[in-house]
């Protein structure tokens, strides 16, 4: 068994270097395809993060009565936090709301007329973020049932439906494009490896004629495919690392709203994706290519 | 399997006359019984072939191009399957052999081709060692075995050279060394001298004769009339897929 593994790995290594032109072509194809795959995956991830952010903007806002009893208000907040659909509950006082309003006017360069008011017309509010924007029903029902505390719940039904329709559509498009790119990459890599194996059909024939078992013929090629995949993946990762900073700036600029931990998450998943796809496709390509020479 | 045209029940009288005896005290390395081979395209390459080869024999397989010599050899190493009849190699029915066991049975046969089939990027030594490596022989046994067969074929001095640096005769001797390195029961050579000039051809034949004297059975397909006639060994003649003669001490052409 050990003899077999040593043999296969050694032959894979020899096979790779002795047929350097074919190996190089296969590795280059692998790199290009992995870059393509990684590129589309990054776009898809950015798109998803952006869509999620947009969905999180959707929140239920409850205007509160100015004279709501403090203990009942606390009770309402606690109940809301306990609801499984709720991501967060924020109390915004009327003073805070006025300040925010003034800041927004100033940012837009509009004239601030609020100074002419003698009382603050804005209510205290509760801003309730939902884990899934479509789960607003129970929350709104509950708030409607608290008339001593809640004066009014902003109706959000139409907004939610529109946003979710658009985001779901974009998500589906993203997944479909990623699958199409994945299939293209699969097809091209498998065919490149098929060519590389074809170039060594004579070697396989000799192995069969001298009585090599299928395993002895197949495994060196599978290891070699894995090597092509691994080399390709490592070089792809180096290329991605080089373009990472400008790319990240572009991503933040393009999607604007990416969460801060986006970078690290992408690095981990992207490494797994590139190495996994490289090695997996290399192995798969070798397996199917050699198979056609074995079946008789 | 390819569609068979022959049922195997309908027997034509064999032109060779006497059938070889079914039971002998000798051990049979090869036995073909009513073998037919029709290729998937409908071409009948072999019909009603009966042939036995006892251990230690030296057999010339002769016949014009297209007679079915190569097809017969492909059946013997189970590169193709007979469409009718039985092919027994060392007592094993190749038609019933599970696919997994084919490699093990192939190691009982050493095969040599007209075009040598050497790996161009491997040295003589590596080409021969390759046959042992790919069949899982432990490394410590490979070196001595390769050195032994290279001495036997007279290539010890050229062990490190690449095939492209060798003459045709030396390349063919490398192929013979590779065929021998497993200690096969049978060496099959398909026109091994087809690409060689007469003098070198004689060297190759003499090498095969020596291997045969050391106890290995040899079956050699050839066009080389001079050699066949001179040596007066057993001659099996194929024509149009049929065995037309099987004589011990025969010449290349029939002597009526
Ligand atoms: N793979 C094949 N498919 C179809 N016909 C074949 C195939 N191989 C050989 N033949 C045919 O079978 C006949 C015998 O061929 P072959 O065994 O190569 O003869 P030989 O080696 O005596 O020259 C020829 O007519 C040849 O065209
Ligand atoms: Mg032939």
For this entry, give a set of tags.
heterodimer, A: 296 residues, alpha+beta, 2 domains, B: alpha/beta, 6-stranded mixed β-sheet, 4-stranded antiparallel β-sheet
What is this structure's SSE topology?
The complex is a heterodimer of chains A (296) and B (256).
Chain A: H1 2-18, H2 20-57, E1 59-64, H3 70-82, E2 86-92, H4 94-108, E3 125-130, H5 137-144, E4 150-153, H6 157-198, H7 201-209, H8 214-255, H9 262-294
Antiparallel strand pairs in A: 1-3, 1-4, 2-3
Chain B: E1 28-38, E2 44-54, E3 58-62, H1 69-76, E4 84-89, E5 92-93, H2 102-106, E6 109-113, H3 124-133, H4 139-153, H5 168-180, E7 186-190, H6 198-213, E8 217-221, H7 225-231, E9 234-239, E10 242-247
Parallel strand pairs in B: 3-8, 3-9, 6-7, 7-8
Antiparallel strand pairs in B: 1-2, 1-4, 4-5, 9-10
Magnesium ion binds next to helix 1 of chain B.
Describe the 3D structure.
The complex is a heterodimer of chains A (296) and B (256). Chain A is of the alpha+beta class. Chain A folds into two domains: 185 residues, no CATH class; 97 residues, Alpha-Beta Plaits, CATH 3.30.70. Chain A is 73% helix and 8% strand. Chain A contains nine helices and four strands; from the N terminus they run ααβαβαβαβαααα. A four-stranded antiparallel β-sheet of chain A has the order 2-3-1-4. The longest helix of chain A has 42 residues. In chain A, 27% of the residues are buried. The mean pLDDT of chain A is 85. With 256 residues, chain B is α/β, with parallel strands linked by helices. Chain B has a domain of 65 residues. In chain B, the strands form two sheets. A six-stranded mixed β-sheet of chain B has the order 6-7-8-3-9-10, sandwiched between helices. The longest helix of chain B is centred in the last third of the chain and has 16 residues. The radius of gyration of chain B is 18 Å and the shape is globular. The termini of chain B are far apart. The N terminus of chain B is likely disordered. The site of adenosine-5'-diphosphate has 12 residues of chain B, from α1. Magnesium ion binds next to α1 of chain B.
